[in-house]
Specification:
The structure is a homodimer.
Chain A: H1 13-17, E1 22-26, H2 31-34, E2 46-47, E3 50-51, H3 52-62, E4 67-72, H4 76-90, E5 93-98, H5 106-114, E6 121-125, E7 128-130, H6 133-141, E8 148-153, E9 167-171, E10 174-179, E11 187-195, H7 198-204, H8 214-223, E12 227-231, E13 237-239, H9 243-255, H10 265-282, H11 289-309, H12 312-338, H13 344-370, H14 376-403, H15 411-415, H16 418-430, H17 434-463
Parallel strand pairs in A: 1-4, 1-6, 4-5, 8-12
Antiparallel strand pairs in A: 2-3, 6-11, 7-13, 8-11, 9-10, 9-11
Helix pairs in contact in A: 5-7, 5-8, 7-8, 10-12, 11-12, 11-13, 12-13, 12-16, 13-14, 14-17, 16-17
Chain lengths: ~475, ~475
């Protein structure tokens, strides 16, 4: 392995101002994948609710790309039909480039698109699943030279099918050799390029066999010293060629949805495990993240109503519903991230409905307790829990607004997170002590606010900025 | 009036990187002010809790200045004693420059300090009260030339004693003439400079009379075309020379504390009018903003406790206390801004304690109502009001976090602000209907959340950013 890590080159003002168009190659037959796919063309292969082509286009858009060219060849009518649908659904403009010579190789598909373009452009294959941040990396690394940039993965130990991958050898930032059989090698070609128009002449070179492969054109540019590597670091990408790699992509995309740094104990060890399974099913339905948010809210409301009845049987059922609502509450965000449907409104509405769901559950438990204990202590217990639940979250938001960063998270803060609070209510319901469980977790929430107050007060001398 | 507005010149990298030191002239006798001031030296004259000198130094610090030189002459021992105190209290470093020739004019005081300095520096008079933003304007306008910059006010209609002010005439950005008797003129000299070392040679010029005035040195630089104007725009500044101008400064500083864009109806028409009077008294005490926050909290808690008793007399007293707490709640911020004591922790703690005070008041009113109505409806009313009060605030904070700006404020939002809520509770107490008033204002708060939800939901297509 070469010890020199490729570095990003200086950011040119142009690259910061303008986002290049993207060319997506979707013309091949994809024989290996088709076998396990009911004969569906590769770009239409579904992966967690999105076809591979749709995922590529939405990944480009997430990186800020406005203009997409999709090159089609094999089964083009079905693919063009999908593209029309995507344009209507997402309100983005996609140019279809038909390549009659698609069977001569992916070089001819690239050539068909490149002749439409005079400025630098992104080039990707529709069967590559990747973190949109890699496209931003390429744009940031762009310089004014006529070199092409290739995103390269140096963590070769994590490649699913290393044997089948295209390897590259590096000299500093320059790529000096490319090939499947290359040894030794320094990294793997991710198939994500930022190309200069120099690629056109390399693609146009006459070939003896009549075959036009992209790798051949790339090799030509390498010989001219015109391809630089951009290290993708820890950002994920996957090449989906076979039914096995499709399963692997599914596994990796789902695993990336957990949030180890934010999830509480219960979220981590219980809720996330169930919600990810649920999401992998929900992704293939047409349910929107907003509908799932609403479903979680309605489930919690049902639980609240059953708690108000008061008898043990209904209480246990109520506890189950509340814990289930807590699990479903993870799915909306998971689906939104999986299907590029995240939105500020969605995140805001989710948080506000969570608070109202908490209010309903506390009210339900208090009314249930009221059946047997119609005293002022029931009222005080309700107030304690209600305010604890809301204020534990409130003080954190307010801190974030004032300080511009999330507050430090101690044990009490993690114990007063929503996943834990609802789990304690569930456990309390099983023990037929939901009110006591509610008062306990409400008290812990207030303690968390108090602890937070003490910490912030102690640190205030150190952390105050100079300017008012 | 000259139609050319002076514009800020390009920002040099140097000015963004380094904050220049400040020279504060505090050597004069200030005869006119002393007469109405019990003979106290001018720099020690108190204005709303801070001496003029302390206010100058803290204004410099608020603008990011690290290093202050204070030139002393008249009554220097008392002033040096104050400076020692300020260094200890605020942890800032101040260099004292003693000017034995202070009686020959402020030019000699400037000269005494300038000989310590080789780089550009800010120059100000300790009897000028000003918005620290003006110093930032000067720093931003700094260029690499050896010109001096003078902050100029073109709104001459707002000058307190225009006759006594020093006027300037402009040619574009260049100052072409200066003097008290100048006609016509384009603006007024605010006494705030960013000086280049060129000032030194102008100050050093021998004078026939032995008098050294700063205006004379400035006039010399004007003749060389070396003084440019920087327009202060709407930013305030005041020259405190007489007992009358001191009263005016007091009035202007207090008026600047109201927040017309943020204050609710009751805050604007009632609370702010009382709190500003209270603050003008509290400023001269040693009470910190934090102590006032705590006082408001304790007053609200007392009101909550009296509400719990339930009889009419106690209820009226409770209502009065709660309304008084609402007024005092404005004073902490006012004092903090008046005395340069704002802090993130203070703002955060104030907001969190406000929520806890609200919780206490709702609990008190509910317990009071319980005395005569021990039913589940009392519990439900408490829940409704409590959650309305907290969630109206919560949803706004969450919106600000997600969208990076405050939510649009409609009528319902303004009716559910804290000043209005507490006022309604006060009015309800007078009518012996605190519980009903509480349920009403709780319901309005929930409606405000609902309205906010609808608006955000309707706008979401327009306002969503492209990148997730």
């Amino acid at each position: 392995m070469n010890a020199d890590t490729p570095r990003t080159v200086s950011i040119s003002p142009r690259s910061a101002d303008r986002v290049p168009p993207a060319v997506i190659l979707a013309a091949g037959a994809g024989v290996r994948l088709r076998e396990g796919n009911g004969g569906r063309p590769k770009p239409l292969t579904e992966l967690l609710g999105l076809s591979l082509l749709e995922r590529s286009i939405l990944s480009c858009r997430a990186a800020g790309v406005d203009e997409c060219y999709v090159v089609v060849g094999y089964a083009q009518e079905r693919i063009v039909h999908l593209i029309d649908e995507l344009e209507a659904r997402h309100g983005i403009s996609i140019t279809v480039v038909r390549n009659p010579n698609w069977e001569t190789g992916n070089g001819s598909s690239a050539l068909a698109a490149v002749s439409h373009l005079t400025d630098p452009f992104l080039l990707l294959m529709c069967d590559h699943v990747f973190d949109p941040a890699i496209l931003r990396l390429l744009m940031t690394a762009a310089d004014e030279s006529d070199s092409c940039l290739l995103a390269v993965d140096r963590h070769t130990d994590r490649i699913f099918d290393l044997e089948d991958a295209t390897k590259v050898r590096l000299d500093g930032q320059l790529i000096t050799a490319i090939g499947k059989e290359l040894t030794p090698f320094d990294g793997v070609d991710t198939g994500l390029f930022l190309c200069s128009p120099a690629l056109l002449s390399a693609l146009e070179k006459p070939t003896g066999s009549g075959k036009r492969s992209l790798t051949r054109a790339v090799r030509h540019l390498i010989n001219q010293g015109k391809i630089k590597a951009v290290d993708v670091g820890d950002r994920f990408w996957l090449d989906v060629d076979t039914p096995e790699s499709l399963s692997d992509a599914r596994r990796v995309l789902l695993a990336k949805l957990a949030k180890p740094s934010e999830d509480g104990f219960v979220a981590r060890w219980l809720n996330r495990r169930v919600s990810l399974r649920l999401s992998s099913y929900l992704a293939s339905t047409h349910l929107s993240p907003g509908a799932i948010t609403l479903a979680s809210f309605v489930i919690a409301l049902s639980g609240a109503a059953l708690f108000a009845v008061g008898s043990y049987l209904w209480t246990v059922l109520a506890g189950l519903l509340v814990q289930f609502a807590s699990i479903v509450d993870g799915c909306d965000g998971e689906i939104a991230r999986l299907k590029f449907q995240t939105s500020r409104f969605g995140a805001w509405a989710d948080t506000v409905l969570d608070r109202y769901a908490d209010v309903a559950v506390v009210t339900g438990i208090s009314l249930g307790h009221w059946q047997t204990h119609p005293t002022a202590f029931t009222l005080l217990g309700a107030v304690l829990a209600l305010t604890g639940f809301i204020l534990a979250s409130y003080t954190k938001k307010e801190y974030e607004l004032r300080y511009g960063s999330k507050p430090p998270s101690g044990l009490l803060a993690r114990l007063s997170k929503r996943d834990m609070r609802l789990f304690v209510l569930f456990a309390g319901a099983l023990l037929n002590r939901p009110f006591e469980a509610m008062v306990l977790t409400g008290a812990v929430s207030h303690l968390a606010v108090g602890a937070h107050f003490l910490t912030a007060s102690r640190d205030r001398r150190l952390s105050e900025p100079r300017l008012p």
